[in-house]
TrEMBL record:
<dbReference type="InterPro" id="IPR006361">
    <property type="entry name" value="Uroporphyrinogen_deCO2ase_HemE"/>
</dbReference>
<keyword id="KW-0456">Lyase</keyword>
<feature type="domain" description="Uroporphyrinogen decarboxylase (URO-D)">
    <location>
        <begin position="152"/>
        <end position="168"/>
    </location>
</feature>
<keyword id="KW-0627">Porphyrin biosynthesis</keyword>
<dbReference type="Pfam" id="PF01208">
    <property type="entry name" value="URO-D"/>
</dbReference>
<comment type="similarity">
    <text>Belongs to the uroporphyrinogen decarboxylase family.</text>
</comment>
<dbReference type="InterPro" id="IPR000257">
    <property type="entry name" value="Uroporphyrinogen_deCOase"/>
</dbReference>
<keyword id="KW-0350">Heme biosynthesis</keyword>
<comment type="pathway">
    <text>Porphyrin-containing compound metabolism; protoporphyrin-IX biosynthesis; coproporphyrinogen-III from 5-aminolevulinate: step 4/4.</text>
</comment>
<protein>
    <recommendedName>
        <fullName>Uroporphyrinogen decarboxylase</fullName>
        <ecNumber>4.1.1.37</ecNumber>
    </recommendedName>
</protein>
<keyword id="KW-0210">Decarboxylase</keyword>
<dbReference type="InterPro" id="IPR038071">
    <property type="entry name" value="UROD/MetE-like_sf"/>
</dbReference>
<feature type="domain" description="Uroporphyrinogen decarboxylase (URO-D)">
    <location>
        <begin position="32"/>
        <end position="41"/>
    </location>
</feature>
<comment type="function">
    <text>Catalyzes the sequential decarboxylation of the four acetate side chains of uroporphyrinogen to form coproporphyrinogen and participates in the fifth step in the heme biosynthetic pathway. Isomer I or isomer III of uroporphyrinogen may serve as substrate, but only coproporphyrinogen III can ultimately be converted to heme. In vitro also decarboxylates pentacarboxylate porphyrinogen I.</text>
</comment>
Amino acid sequence: MEADGLGPQGFPELKNDTFLRAAWGEETDYTPVWCMRQAGRYLPEFRETRAAQDFFNTCRTPEVCCELTLQPLRRFPLDAAIIFSDILVVPQALGMEVTMVPGKGPSFPEPLREERDLERLRDPAVVASELDYVFQAITLTRQRLAGRVPLIGFAGAPWTLMTYMVEGGGSSTMAQAKSWLYQRPQASHQLLRILTDALIPYLVGQVAAGAQALQVFESHAGHLGPQLFSKFALPYLRDVAKRVKAGLQEAGLAPVPMIVFAKDGHFALEELAQAGYEVVGLDWTVAPKKARERVGKMVTLQGNLDPCALYASKEEIGRLVQEMLDDFGPQRYIANLGHGLYPDMDPEHVGAFVDAVHKHSRLLQQN
């Protein structure tokens, strides 16, 4: 018996484990729900907290990350929190300069242009120590959550990180990153290996710091067709899952469920379901019933309401949620959007989404 309601790592006892149970494929009384980018610019309090700060300075300030992570939970009865951070802290820790340009997004002043640029990257073994500020934010947030809901940690997947490092920012075609795959396959694999080697201690470190689940964002899966995906993305996603699990075991840490979200990766759904993750996240372009048929009963699905559905009336949101829940079915399912929340969305409509999931899933369970 642990004293004072403290869990094994000295953290407050978890009061609502619905999200974790669904992730592990255990039975739940209702469908848990959270939203990608739930700590975001759509919340006026987020804009206020972030106002004067440089984006990456914010990421490096545990106290502020904690506050931003908790803000959506004060408004909505969400079933999980996700730490406020960014996938690009990993390339930063590898020694690349990244700035966040307001209105434009991330920018790398000196992207990787040729093979020899890989020599500029730091040893992936030092990455975790460079990212101690993320671990501090996780530990602080886990304390302040006081066991309300589980805390999710995350990272970008190797291919998605590579696209930013080679393109120097966002891109509609990923032509430069893809030209690496066709013209410099060896160097591409070398870079993807470096990123994988950096991600393992980073993700294991997040769990050691208090993260209770991990999501890996393969946000740019859709730029690859099935062939390139199975060559340059999937092997590294598998490797991340396998090595993180082994790393947790080695460190004497309890296993945590892992989620893979490969946006627009519908062509690889079966492979993703067998890649070693407990949960497969879906974007809104995938029909839930078909997805369920394709992945079988072995994994939990997460998703996948079109974020733009939140522009609809609250009644319409309720109807769309009902349809989505009917299609996914009541078990082995975590409700979410099919992508992150957009900055101009109405918080009240986010609340309507969360409430509709809870209300309708309870009704589904009773019938």
